[in-house]
Structures are given as structure tokens and as C-alpha cells.
Amino acid sequence: MRVNMITSEAKPFLKVGGLGDVTYSLSRKMVVYKIPTSITMPYYRNIRENKLGLNIEKVSTFEVRMAWRKLQCDIYKTIYQGITYYFINNDFYFDREKPYGYLDDQERFAFFQLASVQMIYEMELAFEILHIHDWQTGMIPLIYDQFYKGKLKKEPKFIYTIHNPAFLGLVDRKDLYDYFTINESYFDNGLTRLDNKVSYLKTGIMTSDRITTVSPTHAKELLNGFAGRNLQSCLEYRKGIVRGIINGLDVKEWNPDTDPFIHVNYNKENVLSRKIENKIQFAKEMGFKDPSLPLFSIVARLTEQKGLDLILDSLKEMMDHKCNVFILGTGEKDIENKIAYYQSVYPDNFVAKFMYSEELSHKVYASSDFFLMPSRFEPCGITQMISHRYGTLPLARATGGLVDTIIPYNGSNHEVADGLLFTEYNKNSYLVAFKMALELYKHKRPFSKVVHNAMDVDHSWKKSYLEFRNLYLEAMGRD
Ligand code: ADP
Ligand code: GLC
After folding, report:
1. Which pLDDT tens digit goes with each residue over 368-399?
2. Can you tell me which atom of ligand 2 is nearest the CA of 305?
3. Is position 224 within any domain?
4. Which 3 state secondary structure label does DSSP give 402?
5. Is 80 exceeded by the pLDDT of residue 226?
6. What share of the chain is helix, strand, coil (3-state, %, to 5)?
7. Which pLDDT does position 479 carry in this prediction?
8. 419: pLDDT confidence band, cut at 50, 70 and 90?
9. pTM: predicted TM-score of the whole model, two decimal places
10. 16 CA distance to ligand 1 centroid (A)?
11. Considering the domain boundaries, does residue 255 fall inside one?
């Protein structure tokens, strides 16, 4: 079985959020278990500028047709940790400052999808499984069906993983032809249309052989009409092939005992004495006035999903209870502005850095006492798992994968708890959990037990890798 992941993000070349962690670390696990796995992704500018010391060579050039356009496509290739990476390039679409955030993103990823399948044809590659991810790849099974069925060396099966259903990949009816050279009659045949638009995400759901969401709870949420995004009926229709498989974590990379970025390394045996050294150093570096206060942190894309407003609206009460709060993130300008305003109100206890920094993120996980995830929705969440690994207790809203990965402290179950949860998306509900966290923090014995429990959780890919492998085999009819 040969697997090709097609994705807009994969470490170590490009990561904006958890998608980049998952495509890489799942592929890595596959390779370790001797399943040849490759990744196809765009050749973003940052990759051509920083090749990470790797030999990235051009291996093919062909012309991609998008209705009346004929566009040059160059394929680059490298091997990293046993994973073959194929990079799709067209200068106009991908030689840009950022990976996303342009008005023509849908057109850019139309090109990417067409080119990804054409690459398999032109280079005569053979994959039994095409594992596609999120809206940027949802049209691929339909593209295959329209143009390549019976023409590839292997007939692939399509596994579609929905990481973030908030992004539907919407285009107009006319774009079916204008981008994909697909007849507009496909707008009304039930495969592509969501309300009055074509949705790449819906198309992926309707045309793939298997669909996965990134946690079992989120699968239920989606089937129950998640956030009114109108996917419920098509998911209901495909229910029999939907599975919720929780993401794993790259436990080698995220390991406080060997982490090269943090001030002092530690493990479960010495976490209590060593973690505090990280905290004091970090708090000094970041300019907190009293480094000894409990530290609550966030590392996140600053989007509505992540629920930052709940924290900002509760800051006054949090500050009354004496704590430090740190945010690392980039994203929507109005959220950044609101955070910047509160920094000026609480300069001694509230610090934010608006940047993307792997290194700083490692320091945050290693230095914090609690990690805040007040998400409105969270399909899986990687950051609570990293927090566990670093003995930092997640304080999260009970939604999606957060329900599946956190055993909440209830005031007395410190023997088993490994974090805190609150249910309602409102200040009161959040502050109850926040106060419970502070109470726990004050009582060293139960607190240290919960920290140890967190560090004991097995978030490795072991179990989920097997679920994916079995799903691939099932899709191939070999179960
Ligand atoms: P999402 O995919 O919705 O953004 P996840 O919790 O699944 O949320 O994954 C987020 C990933 O991105 C984590 O690995 C987190 O450490 C990382 N991350 C998010 N923002 C930043 C940032 N500003 N700097 C460094 N890493 C970040
Ligand atoms: C998405 C989700 C996040 C998940 C990640 C990786 O970005 O927002 O919850 O962990 O994908 O699957």
C-alpha cells in the first residue's frame, strides 16, 4: 500500500496550525511502519527561500488546463525523514508572501488540486491511497473521476479528513467550469452545491471513499449540525463512511526532556522543581513584574474559533485573583488590537507577542502552569496534548476533541484528572473553572498529582495510526 497525502500544510516546510503537525507526523508514523508515504503540497515562497539544507530538485514540468487558461506547473521533490515531498509550483499562485489570505485562494487551490492529480498521471506514480485534507483538496476525487479514471497506474481510493469545517471553500457555479473545466450541470447533481455556491468541502464529503474527522466527539457534533454550517444533511447521507479518529502528537518533537528550545529540560520525575525554573526565566524575559504568580498561557491562531474574547472579557476578574497571562499568536487584526489594548491596561501581568515562533511556543508550553483553550469549537486541538506532555494543565471548553482528550478536575478527583473543562461559552462558566484551577494550584499535593497525570497521557500516534491503516485497507476492500 502506497499513500500520498495531499495537503496545503505539512511540517517541516509549512505550518500555520495543527494541519501541518498532523500531515507530517502521521506520514512519519506510516513510514516508520514501512508504509511508503509521500506528501504533495504547494511550493510556497518560504520553501524555495529556506530549503532547510535539503536538496530540493525539479523533477517534472507540464501544462495544467483551467478552462481557457494554460498554466505552467513545475514539480519539485525532496525526501525528509523517509517521507517523499512533492511540491507543486506555479509562480503566480505560490510565489507570494503568505500561504493563504488572498482573494484568489479558491483559484490558487483549484490549480493545486488539478496539478496534484495531473502530477500522478504525468510522472506515472502509483498510489493506492490518496489521503486528502480540508477544503483545499475536496475537489480531487471529482477531478479524478472526470479526467483520470482508468488512466493512472493505480486506481486510488480517497480518504478525506476534515480538520476544520469552518472553511467551506466556496466558489460560484460558473467556477465549476472556469476553474475545473467541469460541466456546470454538476452544480445540480447533489455533489457540489451547498446553498447557492459550490463548496470544495462538501464535494470532498460527497465523493470520497472514506471521511474522517479529527476526533470522535467532533464527528458527532458535525452529524448534529455543527454551528449551522449546513453540512449536516450531506454528512448524514455519508454517515456510514464517516469515522472520528483522534489526532496523535509527535511525541519525539514535543518532549520536555530533550527539547532544545527550553531553558532547562525536565521529565516526570523532576517536573516540580525544574518547570518553575523555566517559568521564572520566561516570565523575566517577557517582562512580567512578578514571575512567581501562576501563569496562564495561550498559543493559537487569533481567530473567532479560539474564543479569545472570553478571556479578554474575563481579564479584570482574573487579574483580581493575581495571575499572569501570556498570549502567543497571529491572526485577525481586530483581535490583535483588543489584546494590545488590554496590554496597556495590565502591563505588569498581561503580555502578548503577535508572531509565529516555534521556538517561543516550546518555551510557553514548558513555562506555563495552565494552558487556556476557550474554543468556540475545536475539531481536535493539538495544543492541549502538547500541554499535557509538558505538565501544563489545559483549561479548556468542553467541545470537540477537547472532550476526548481531557479528564476534567472536579474539585476532588485529582487521582485521575489531567486538566479542567467548562461547558457553556460564557464568562461565568469560564470563571468557575478558572477559580477551580487556582484552588488546585494552591494545594501542592493534588496539583502535582494532576500534573503527573497529564504527563502520563499517551498522545502518541500508536493507536490512531492503526485506525488509519485499517481504514485505508478497508477502503481498498482488503479488511
Ligand atoms: P489549529 O489547527 O486550529 O490552529 P491546533 O491546536 O490543532 O489548532 O494546532 C495549533 C498548532 O499551531 C500547535 O502546534 C501550536 O503550537 C501551533 N501554533 C499556533 N499559533 C502559533 C504561533 N503563533 N507560534 C507558534 N506556533 C503556533
Ligand atoms: C484544525 C482544527 C484543530 C485540529 C487541527 C488538526 O485546524 O481547528 O482542532 O487539531 O485542525 O487536525
Report:
1. 999 999 999 999 999 999 999 999 999 999 99
2. 8
3. yes
4. helix
5. no
6. 40, 20, 35
7. 62
8. very high
9. 0.96
10. 7
11. no
pLDDT at 233: 87
Ligand 2 atom with minimal separation from the 21 CA: 6
Is the predicted pLDDT of residue 430 greater than 70, yes or no?
yes
Q: Is residue 254 one of the residues assigned to a domain?
A: no
Among residues 378, 407, 391, which one has the least CA distance to residue 246?
Answer: 378
Residue 227 has pLDDT above 60, yes or no: no
Ligand 1, residues at Cβ distance < 6 Å: 17-19, 21, 299-301, 328-330, 356-358, 361, 380-383
Q: Report the alpha-carbon distance of residue 69 to residue 263 in Å, rounded.
A: 53
Closest approach atom of ligand 1 to CA 164: 3
Domain shared by 90 and 206, yes or no: yes
Domain around 279: 271-456
Q: How far apart are CA 74 and CA 61, in angstroms?
A: 4
Q: Which of 14, 19, 302, 468 maximizes ligand 2 atoms within 8 Å of its Cβ, making it the mutation to test the pocket?
A: 19
Ligand 2 centroid–CA 149 distance in Å is: 31
316 and 234 within one domain: no
pLDDT of residue 9: 98
What is the C-alpha to C-alpha distance for residues 28 and 407, in angstroms, rounded to an integer? 28
- Average pLDDT of 69-83? 98
Which ligand is closest in space to the CA of residue 247? 2
Give yes or no: residues 237 and 348 share one domain: no
Q: Tell me how far apart the alpha carbons of residues 284 and 295 are, in angstroms, rounded to a whole number.
A: 12
Residues 198 and 109 in one domain: yes
- Pocket lined around ligand 2, Cβ cut-off 6 Å: 17-19, 22, 163-164, 214, 247, 378-382, 401
Phi-psi region of 134 (alpha: psi -120 to 50; beta: other; left: phi over 0): left
Residue nearest to atom 26 of ligand 1 (CA): 358
| Burial of 334 (C-beta count, 10 Å sphere; 0-12/13-18/19+) | exposed
- CA-wise closest residue to 383 among 458, 298, 307: 298
Mean pLDDT estimate for the chain: 96
